[in-house]
Write a structure and sequence with these properties.
5 strands, 65% helix, 5-stranded antiparallel β-sheet, Beta-Lactamase, alpha+beta, 331 residues
């Protein structure tokens, strides 16, 4: 077969390969279009139901801004949904001053997955300065792929109920129960963090040992026979594949998200310029791990780990007075 025939065969194979990829992409596009159509229909149905709901429905994005406010806001507050969406602060300004701090904390806890209360009673001032008692409940919203989209809030006017009760009581027994629940939750969280840190330290020690073996083998490569050299090179390749494997990190992320849900979403929302390496460092710092162990996990030197911390501080815009770990613990 001549050179031109070989070239034609290669071209035909390449064309066949490209046509196969094109068909695969077209199928993916069709699937995505179908999924988008289903999502659009679902959103249309939700909006139709929410627009005519008796309760006041809201949708908070992960960062806290409003995505949707139902028209029923006007019957409860006197303010149209468009007024509230165009001015995010209005939602908090109409809350009765004495309840405003607790209301903000409830929304923040819901967005950060740190709240224990499923609902909150609060007062608001209508456009005509009438006091209404309301109850708010929040629930996390996810799309079909499991991506966190924020919180859906439902606000119900409970003024008639409160008037029937005659007074609003904050029973000390209720406060004591909330405190016990919170303490139990914090203890469980600490136990899970300790378990995760223990696994990561073991992983760091393993990486450190493998790196040591690799360095020793590398130093003796030039001194050994050709046959031994081939064996040592295979050993080094095996060590490298183990050190750079992403399986451990993927498993860690899944486990970490179960303990601290929404942490990476909040990080990327607040600091979109963070890289995957930065996210790893943030998660290790969130667990308050030692720099030595962090260096072992990231396959870098302790000095490089310190430099990574300095760069992370700059990306987050922290001053010298700000403590990096304390800042990350608040996210």
């Amino acid at each position: 077969m001549s050179g031109s025939d070989d070239e034609n065969v290669r071209l035909e194979n390449k064309i066949t390969e490209l046509e196969k990829k094109r068909d695969e992409l077209e199928n993916e596009i069709l699937d995505l279009r179908s999924e988008l159509e289903d999502t659009a229909k679902a959103l249309e149905r939700y909006k139709l139901i929410a627009d005519f709901a008796h309760d006041w429905e809201l949708w908070f994005r992960p960062g806290g801004s409003l995505e949707y406010v139902s028209p029923s806001s006007q019957s409860i507050t006197g303010y149209a949904s468009g007024e509230i969406i165009s001015n995010d602060m209005l939602l908090y300004e109409i809350v009765y001053p004495d309840d405003r701090k607790e209301f903000r904390a409830f929304i923040k806890d819901a967005l950060n997955f740190t709240g224990l209360r499923r609902s909150l009673n609060f007062r608001l001032l209508t456009r005509t300065k009438q006091i209404r008692w309301c109850e708010i409940k929040c629930r996390a919203v996810y799309d079909s792929r499991g991506k966190y989209l924020g919180q859906r809030a439902s606000i119900n006017d409970v003024t008639p109920l409160m008037q029937a009760l005659g007074e609003i009581r904050n029973l000390s027994a209720g406060k004591e129960y909330d405190a016990r629940v919170r303490d139990r939750y914090l203890r469980e969280l600490e136990d899970k963090d300790r378990e995760l840190v223990s696994q990561l330290v073991a992983m760091s020690n393993k990486n450190e040992t493998l790196q040591f073996v690799k360095n020793v083998v590398t130093r003796h490569l030039d001194k050994c026979s050709k046959e031994d050299k081939e064996i040592f090179i295979r050993i080094i390749d095996q060590i490298n594949s183990t050190l750079v494997s992403t399986d451990n990190w993927d498993n860690f992320m899944l486990h970490f998200e179960k303990i601290h849900p929404g942490f990476f979403t909040r990080l990327m929302t607040r600091y979109p310029a963070l890289t995957n390496k930065d996210l790893k460092l943030c998660s290790y710092l969130r667990l308050q791990m030692a720099t030595k162990d962090i260096a072992g996990l990231m396959n870098i030197t302790i000095q490089s780990a310190e430099i990574s911390r300095v760069r992370l501080r700059k990306k987050m815009g922290l001053t010298r007075k700000d403590k990096l770990v304390e800042h990350i613990l608040k996210i």
